[in-house]
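Duplicate of #3305? Posting structure anyway:
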């Protein structure tokens, strides 16, 4: 059997669809929502409306470019959560209607599990067990991945996510949204050792990013008080320094996790895994410590439906289907057997 599955992602501000056939992702169509830029962050109500507007043509385009007809599909997969409730509702309702109309199974997918399994879309694929640092706008987790559908969070942020720290730091500097990619870009021209920030230490494998956000706010406030042109004059150095600080916090815990779990297969995933400082830092650390490192293709770092499709493929193999009463969940545990 060669199962063909349509997957839909709508957890935040990208409307995306993908078709997978026999474990091979055929496409990954994404509509990013520019409506949020002028507000400096994602506005949930506007995100839901934009999903509603985009979803029909994104799904049609995905089916057309995959060459697969609706009636050839074997299942419909959707992101159940975590994410923005109104945004998720659009994807869940659309997927349910399609599954009902075509009389085929529905498959629900955990968004964070999908980020982890983005490593199974293309080669090279990590061997089990491996550790995955999953870093996005809403999450910062170290995940012990025992099998495709068997993973446990062994460390996570106790307050803000690292993506949020990137975005807020950018906002404090007056940079446009989304701030993470902007900091990354400016950091390339800056000195990462120009400024130092206080280290927040957390027990075990957990993280905390709220302290650095506050420290950065005071740093900017004090420097601007001394020289109103401070940000303009030192933009690149500030970005390089805050990026280095955040990346060091992530890599330090990842190293600790590798030692504690005695695992040297190390992956990163999620929007912040697109960050060049993190990608280079992981490669360097991997070379020093003898890790085998896995870094996703750029198109699979930020939100996309290809990663939802790959989870759906493994669930389909085990016949793990959802019922038509499935509801979206803004918060959702990752620990799935
Ligand atoms: O996974 P994702 O697309 O959505 C969530 O599930 O949250 O991650 C979005 C986050 C945002 O905070 C964004 O600023 C950050 O990923 N991000 C980056 C970069 N590209 C995206 N942060 C730092 N450097 C980047 N190049
Ligand atoms: Zn995400």
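Output from current build:
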């Amino acid at each position: 059997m060669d199962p063909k599955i349509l997957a839909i992602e709508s957890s935040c501000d990208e409307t995306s669809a993908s078709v997978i056939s026999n474990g091979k992702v055929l496409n990954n169509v994404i509509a990013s929502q520019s409506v949020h830029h002028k507000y400096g962050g994602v506005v949930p109500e506007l995100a839901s409306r934009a999903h509603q507007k985009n979803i029909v043509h994104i799904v049609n385009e995905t089916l057309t470019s995959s060459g697969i007809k609706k009636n050839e599909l074997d299942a419909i997969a959707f992101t159940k959560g975590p994410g923005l409730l109104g945004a998720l509702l659009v994807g869940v309702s659309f997927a349910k209607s399609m599954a009902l109309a075509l009389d085929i199974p529905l498959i629900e997918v955990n968004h964070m599990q999908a980020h982890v399994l983005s490593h199974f879309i293309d080669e090279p694929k990590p061997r089990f067990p491996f550790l995955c640092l999953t870093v996005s706008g809403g999450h910062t987790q170290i995940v012990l991945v025992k099998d495709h559908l068997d993973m446990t969070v062994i460390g996570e942020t106790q307050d803000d996510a690292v993506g949020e720290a990137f975005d807020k730091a950018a906002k404090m500097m007056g940079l446009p949204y989304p701030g993470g990619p902007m900091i990354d870009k400016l950091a390339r021209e800056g000195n990462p050792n120009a400024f130092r920030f206080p280290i927040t230490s957390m027990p075990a494998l957990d993280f905390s990013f709220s302290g650095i956000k506050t420290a950065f706010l005071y740093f900017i406030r004090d420097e601007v008080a001394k020289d109103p042109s401070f940000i303009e004059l030192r933009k690149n150095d500030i970005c390089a320094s805050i990026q280095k600080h955040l990346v060091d916090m992530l890599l330090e815990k990842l190293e600790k996790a590798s030692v504690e779990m005695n695992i040297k297969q190390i992956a990163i995933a999620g929007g912040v895994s697109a960050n060049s400082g993190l990608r280079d830092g992981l490669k360097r650390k991997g070379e020093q410590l003898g890790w085998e490192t896995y870094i996703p293709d750029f198109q699979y770092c930020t939100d996309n439906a290809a990663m939802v499709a790959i989870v759906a493929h493994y669930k389909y193999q085990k016949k793990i289907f959802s019922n038509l009463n499935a509801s979206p969940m803004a918060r959702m545990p990752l620990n799935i057997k």
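Confirmed duplicate; merging threads. The mean pLDDT is 96. Residues 124-296 form a domain with the Nucleotidyltransferase; domain 5 fold (CATH 3.30.420.40).
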